[in-house]
């Protein structure tokens, strides 16, 4: 605002600057007031140009609006300044602290003055007393005198050189202090950000920013917030989340991979432009650390399980075709093929993706490093997917050979008849349905009534379908005609075969899980184990050991969490607007 004042409108400039700095040091949000009297013709001309710029559909619409505004917002007369107290919501410092412990890199993009932003940074624990601050600004005597003189060309040249020099000095500080346990914080104002985001300088700025533990961009315009978010998203290739509560945050929320809007006193523009809406900032902790972890694990396990059950089903068909010398003899009835994924095995997977919880919400919040499982993609790697597919192949081989070797060479019923392909196919299909659902029961870590219903109901539904379908006329039921009532149910070999097949097919998965749990437990398995033991999860010393020894974080920059010496991962990046 000060650079827009006229020469005769600067009477109270020095005093106002002093007051504004005092307000900002106290953590208050400041507003500078100035005015200019317009002639009617001048206003009409401005209004016409502003309407044309606002209604423009060209790519440079924002630049046109800024140009028109700059032409009218000049030669102002200073009135004074105001200050208001804007307290942080309850739980904000604790929330940011937990997110930092989870390995989330946090950037604050705010429109406040630098002094106010720094005070807010300390209040929300983003900045700490021992952290070294790299401050980039243009409030220098040289540039201030150029602003008063009104030489725009000289201002731009001097500002660009100053920003480049300060960025280079900041990188030199980082290099000289490499290995320091306290970390660095980068603080940059909106004027400097204009040049730092330029094509010739944004790479240098980005390299400096990602090497710092915390970044605060103050006096940022809505466009700058969006550009910084884009820079982080494209520069790191990581997932970015932006959170804001006002109209100034709309661009940032839309630019980020995930936009979280806070509904509050500043209107609903942010909420309407976001992907997720919450009522208070502190709810972000539970959204990410609890529901974020749960959803990641649910979706990962659900997809792996889809591969497992379909590989197993398809492999039994292939093995049977090979067994019959690829004669075209079908292993299963046509309706069996159609309803496998539709009725008998689909609902347990859906229930897993909705209700399963590997650890409780309390433990997710107590051990925020659990969030790193999603960052490192521990549960959805190619190794894990191929492992589930191999498990499905092993189960298919066990089912096929048990069924064919147990049923083919001997009498199936008391009348001495051997099992035909209808009986072998129905038995094999029954084993597939049972193994898939029992495997699901082993994979589930948090049983609800709905999961019991869909898992055991899937098996019951298969037998009910086989009974009803087999009771229809042979023209409809074809190869399944009375196969359950007359052939399968009365035969002890059928039930014994199911029992042994299910046990044998689950042995590989159960053995692998037991060995892994005993010798190579994953982080969530350790947490679940201590929660079952009782008491130890509330032991602070044991909790610190768990946090430090289970998931190694990839390092980028220096840490800002409770333990400042711990480095944090860069993924996902996280933007906050205040």
TrEMBL record:
GO terms for molecular function: ATP binding; ATP hydrolysis activity; ATPase-coupled intramembrane lipid transporter activity; magnesium ion binding. Residues 534-544 have a biased composition (Basic and acidic residues). Its EC number is 7.6.2.1. GO terms for cellular component: plasma membrane. The keyword Translocase applies. One of its GO terms (biological process) is phospholipid translocation. InterPro entries: ATPase_P-typ_cyto_dom_N, ATPase_P-typ_TM_dom_sf, HAD-like_sf, HAD_sf, P-type_ATPase_IV, P_typ_ATPase, P_typ_ATPase_c. Mg(2+) binds at residues 245, 249. It is found in: Membrane. Its cofactor is Mg(2+). Residues 534-578 are annotated as: Disordered. Residues 271-521 form the P-type ATPase C-terminal domain. It catalyses: ATP + H2O + phospholipidSide 1 = ADP + phosphate + phospholipidSide 2. Its main location: membrane. It is a multi-pass membrane protein. The chain crosses the membrane at residues 306-323, 335-355, 385-407, 419-446, 453-472, 492-512. It holds the Pfam family PhoLip_ATPase_C. Keywords: ATP-binding, Magnesium, Membrane, Metal-binding, Nucleotide-binding, Translocase, Transmembrane, Transmembrane helix. Belongs to the cation transport ATPase (P-type) (TC 3.A.3) family. Type IV subfamily. This is Phospholipid-transporting ATPase. The lineage of its organism: Eukaryota, Viridiplantae, Streptophyta, Embryophyta, Tracheophyta.
């Amino acid at each position: 605002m000060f650079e827009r004042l006229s020469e005769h409108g600067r009477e109270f400039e020095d005093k106002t600057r002093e007051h504004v700095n005092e307000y900002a040091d106290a953590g208050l949000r400041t507003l500078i007031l100035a005015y200019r009297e317009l002639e009617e013709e001048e206003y009409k001309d401005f209004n016409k140009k502003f309407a044309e710029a606002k209604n423009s559909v060209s790519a440079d619409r924002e630049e046109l609006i800024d140009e028109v505004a700059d032409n009218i917002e000049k030669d102002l007369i200073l009135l004074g300044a105001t200050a208001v107290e804007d307290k942080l919501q309850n739980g904000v410092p604790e929330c940011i602290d937990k997110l930092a412990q989870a390995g989330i890199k946090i950037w604050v993009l705010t429109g406040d003055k630098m002094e106010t932003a720094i005070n807010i940074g300390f209040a929300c624990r983003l900045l700490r007393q021992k952290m070294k601050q790299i401050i980039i600004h243009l409030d220098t005597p040289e540039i201030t005198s150029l602003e008063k003189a009104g030489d725009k060309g000289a201002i731009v040249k001097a500002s660009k050189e100053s920003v480049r020099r300060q960025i280079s000095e900041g990188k030199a500080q980082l290099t000289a202090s490499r290995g320091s346990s306290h970390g660095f914080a980068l603080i940059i104002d909106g004027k400097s950000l204009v040049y730092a985001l330029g094509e010739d300088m944004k790479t240098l700025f980005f390299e400096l920013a990602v090497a710092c533990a915390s970044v605060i961009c103050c006096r940022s315009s809505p466009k700058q917030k969006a550009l910084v978010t884009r820079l982080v998203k494209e520069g790191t290739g990581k997932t970015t989340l932006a959170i804001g509560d006002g109209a100034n945050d709309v661009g940032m929320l839309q630019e980020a991979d995930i936009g979280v809007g806070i509904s509050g006193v500043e209107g609903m523009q942010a909420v309407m432009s976001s992907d997720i809406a919450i009522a208070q900032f502190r709810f972000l902790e539970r959204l990410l650390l609890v529901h974020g972890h749960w959803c990641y694990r649910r979706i990962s396990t659900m997809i792996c399980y889809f591969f497992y059950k379909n590989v197993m089903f398809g492999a039994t068909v292939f093995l049977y075709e090979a067994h019959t010398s690829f004669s075209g003899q079908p292993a299963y009835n046509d309706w069996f093929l159609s309803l496998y994924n539709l009725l008998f095995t689909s609902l347990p997977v859906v229930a897993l993706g909705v209700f399963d919880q590997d650890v409780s919400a309390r433990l997710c919040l107590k051990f925020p490093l659990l969030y790193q499982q999603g960052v490192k993609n521990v549960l959805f790697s190619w190794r894990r997917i191929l492992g589930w597919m191999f498990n499905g192949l092993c189960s298919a081989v066990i089912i096929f050979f048990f069924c064919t070797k147990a049923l083919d060479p001997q009498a199936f019923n008391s009348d001495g008849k051997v099992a035909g392909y209808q009986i072998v196919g129905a038995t094999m299909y029954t084993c597939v349905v049972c193994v898939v659902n029992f495997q699901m029961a082993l994979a589930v870590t948090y049983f609800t009534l709905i999961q019991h219903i869909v898992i055991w109901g899937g098996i019951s539904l298969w037998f009910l379908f086989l009974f009803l379908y087999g009771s229809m006329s042979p023209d409809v039921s074809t190869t399944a005609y009375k196969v359950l009532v007359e052939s399968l149910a009365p035969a002890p070999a059928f039930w014994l075969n199911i029992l042994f097949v299910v046990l044998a097919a689950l042995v590989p998965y159960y053995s692998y899980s037991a060995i892994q749990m005993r010798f190579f437990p994953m982080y969530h398995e350790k947490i679940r184990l201590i929660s079952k033991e009782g008491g130890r999860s509330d032991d602070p010393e044991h909790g610190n050991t768990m946090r430090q020894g289970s998931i190694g974080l990839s390092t980028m920059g220096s840490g800002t969490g409770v333990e400042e010496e711990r480095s944090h991962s860069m993924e996902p990046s996280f933007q906050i607007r205040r």
